[in-house]
Amino acid sequence: MKSYDVVVIGAGPGGYVAAIRCAQLGLTTACVESWANDKGEPTLGGTCLNVGCIPSKALLDSSHQYQQIKQEANVHGITVSGVSIDVNRMIARKDTIVHILTQGIAGLFRKHKIDWLQGHGRLLSDNQIEISPVTAAHGEMTTVSAKHIILATGSVPMQIPAARIDNKLIVDSSGALAFNEVPRTLGIIGAGAIGLELGSVWNRLGAKVIILEALEEFLVPVDRQIAAQAHKTLQKQGLDIHLGTRVTGTGTNNRQVIITFDHSGDKQQIIVDKLIVAAGRQPNTAGLGAQEYGLQLDNRGFIEVDANCRTNLPNVYAIGDVVRGPMLAHKASEEGVAVAEGIAGHTGHVNYEVIPWVIYTWPEIAWVGRTEQELKERAHPYKSSAFPFMASGRARAMGETTGMIKILGDEKTDRILGVHMFGPNASELIAEAVLAMAFDASTEDIARTIHAHPTLSEALHEAALGIDKRALHI
Ligand code: FAD
Ligand code: AMP
By CB count within 10 A, which of 147, 213, 248, 459 is most buried? Predict the structure, then answer.
């Protein structure tokens, strides 16, 4: 039986990063991965690379460009005519990007001499793993042993009884990344990040998008002021968002989906060409042998871990979407690095207080730290200042004046407590705020930092200046 210092189960951004860091630290490492793409080829990268972060951003970019050319080009004096979208080419471009990146991880594994064990991993004990091949064509059942095991088995789309996935008319987020034409009408269950991003893609390409969300409030985790602006803007773009609307059933004929929902006690129905179920994601421990070997799960099915991602089994760790905390790729990767460093005898650490969040609508929504409503709930004394992109020279030059940056600082110490953005390139701009918070900076630190002109980042500078009522351009 082959034995390793570390065997990682799952090669998403949690698992593959953990494997690379282990190998960098001189540990003999293998990574078990069962994913196969639609051609049946074993593939690394997990949800994020195959059906998550990357393909969704590829389609968001294509659809954004299409819309810009159609709707904004004439503002710049550019005349275009006959603009159309070839959905199959757009999807093929996305598939090529996924292929290049997943192949890239296979290359990194080779470079770091990480063994990629293709198949489904199951715990036999706290130091043995059985690997069953994805199909008979992919080899035989094997067993390996490891001094340390890292579980990084990720998450899968939440299934709801009201809308069973048939992969024809009713799809999950993976199906929605592979439509071969623009549906005329598209229903989406769930107005979370995934529902809004996929809704934006197909809305920009011409679908009439109706989003049904059970909660009364829009984007609960987001700062209320930012959520209100985003809600208004996305509605104006054509996303028909219905809050307080719980889907209770669906039916299909051969061509369409009939959705039954409850709105303020009223039962109603709509008919759409396609329905995306984006009702959240759940931890994936299927076939892992968790119960048999006494691996402790919490009441929602997440593997229970301590602050250092240790499970209740000795030398078995768990990271990423399969454990508590935000279901974000960068959180999974950071945990992977920290666990690898811990195993190698270093001090790994994840600062959960400064994890950035991004929703890639356009404009983008991004934040880090506490929201204003959280500070109010905790009775934490704070100062707040916001700067609108309307007053930014660069945003004006780009024709991107919707949105703002808001900064929250501790009333006494001035330490930054949270930064919230709705605006162009917020996904990139948030990095400055994350770095500032990681260094425990004050709002005054940002106010005294020179920002290049003209840039969108000046909006954060101005927001920080505004804490002491000294913003210059408003
Ligand atoms: P995963 O990426 O889910 O990987 C787990 C891997 O483990 C899978 O490859 C699976 O096949 C494998 N596996 C599971 N069980 C076994 C087993 N027993 N044996 C062998 N292999 C096994 N996050 C962001 O931060 N930014 C985004 O923009 C973003 N966009 C998203 C868009 C969509 C449409 C979706 C669905 C998700 C998005 N996410 C995004 C979330 C992100 O994809 C996840 O947070 C991230 O992939 C979690 O990483 P992970 O390594 O924990 O798990
Ligand atoms: P997220 O967990 O952020 O990806 O968002 C998923 C959203 O789907 C949540 O806001 C849920 O409230 C919503 N949701 C889940 N089930 C239903 C349902 N049956 N009808 C409408 N919305 C739902």
Answer: 459
Q: Is 330 a catalytic residue?
A: no
Instruction: Answer yes or no: is 162 within a domain.
Output: no
In a domain, 174, yes or no: yes
Whether the pTM exceeds 0.85: the reply is yes
Owning domain of residue 409? 354-466
Instruction: Please give the Cα distance from 447 to 146 (Å, whole number).
Output: 51
Answer whether 162 contacts ligand 2 (Cβ < 6 A).
yes
* Bridge partner list, 156: 282
pLDDT-based confidence at residue 139 (cuts at 50, 70, 90): confident
pLDDT in tens, 265-309: 999 999 999 999 999 999 999 999 988 889 999 999 999 999 999
Residue where one domain finishes, among candidates 350, 367, 398: 350
Q: Is 158 exposed, middle or buried (0-12, 13-18, 19+ CB in 10 A)?
A: middle
The active-site residue, picked from 346, 349, 453, 473, is 453
Q: Within 252-318, where are the H helices? A: none
Structure tokens belonging to residue 451: 């920002």
Residue after which a domain boundary falls, among 234, 255, 279:
279
- The alpha carbon of 215 and the centre of ligand 2 are apart by a number of angstroms equal to 8
- Same domain, yes or no: 295 and 270: no
Residue 165 maps to a domain: no
Neighbours of 78 (CB within 10 A): 9
